[in-house]
């Protein structure tokens, strides 16, 4: 399988707070849709972790690399700002979204579908009409301590964001960590099913994470928070990646 997904000329930020050559390129966006049924919405942390895995699966899919039919859009997107937009769907809207080319990724209860990048002003009509703002989810209890053998995506304790915004941010964090890892560890992570966990950092830990040379996402400031805000720090495991039991992405 082709696993080229190389890092573009991209620093550790969503869209940056200074203009450079990336801003002159045509701008693309990576669409993600989370399934939120009224009677059974997913838990927040599960949805965030599933969204992060969805981004990684898109980056490394055969259709998105090499001569794959999604590869030109992936390259164009990565040559610009790595924007991501999360929308929500239920019922018939979710079924229609599932008919478009993309990948559906299932978590413990969450389902997220990720699509090849589209021009910023060229969304498919089936996705353009979906709601983007105000996506809110909750955890019934505080998430447990993450186990070993997985990447850790730490959310800032200093910011308030909607669940949809957080899903985009942890997607950025996962993508930047993928870029930062050496090829051997990338392949190990992929073969293990992209084990990862999303947690909110303590303030003490956050200071260490953001000053420790890890990939850190800095927001562009388009929505919800100020430009340059540090949203996610991505930390690889000290040792190897533990395989994800039963992790089963479904290609659409």
UniProtKB/TrEMBL annotation:
The keyword Hydrolase applies. It catalyses: an N-acyl-L-alpha-aminoacyl-tRNA + H2O = an N-acyl-L-amino acid + a tRNA + H(+). Residues 1-26, 231-252 are annotated as: Disordered. Its EC number is 3.1.1.29. This is peptidyl-tRNA hydrolase. It is an enzyme of class 3 (hydrolase). One of its GO terms (molecular function) is hydrolase activity. It comes from Streptomyces pyxinae. The keyword Hydrolase applies. Gene3D superfamilies: Bit1. InterPro entries: Pep_tRNA_hydro_II_dom_sf (IPR023476), PTH2 (IPR002833). It comes from the Bacteria.
């Amino acid at each position: 399988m082709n696993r080229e997904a190389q890092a573009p000329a991209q620093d550790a930020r969503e869209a940056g707070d200074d203009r450079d050559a990336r801003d002159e390129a045509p701008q693309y966006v990576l669409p993600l849709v989370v399934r939120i049924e009224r009677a059974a919405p997913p838990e927040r942390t599960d949805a965030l972790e599933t969204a992060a895995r969805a981004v990684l699966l898109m980056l490394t899919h055969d259709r998105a690399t090499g001569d794959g039919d999604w590869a030109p859009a992936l390259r164009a997107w990565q040559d610009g700002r790595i924007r991501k937009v999360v929308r929500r769907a239920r019922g018939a809207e979710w079924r229609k979204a599932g008919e478009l080319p993309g990948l559906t990724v299932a978590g413990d209860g969450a389902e997220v579908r990720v699509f090849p990048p589209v021009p910023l002003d060229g969304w498919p009509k089936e996705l353009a009409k979906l709601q983007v703002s105000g996506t809110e989810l909750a955890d019934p209890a505080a998430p447990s301590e993450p186990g070993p053998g997985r990447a850790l995506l730490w959310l800032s304790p200093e910011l308030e964001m909607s669940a949809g915004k957080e899903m985009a941010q942890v997607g950025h964090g996962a993508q930047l960590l993928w870029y930062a890892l050496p090829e051997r560890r990338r392949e190990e992570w992929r073969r293990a099913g992209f084990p990862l966990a999303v947690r909110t950092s303590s303030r003490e830990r956050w200071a260490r994470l953001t000053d420790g040379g890890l990939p850190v996402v800095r927001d562009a400031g388009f929505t919800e928070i100020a430009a340059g805000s540090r949203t996610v720090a991505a930390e690889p495991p000290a040792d190897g990646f533990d395989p994800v039991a039963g992790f089963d992405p479904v290609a659409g």
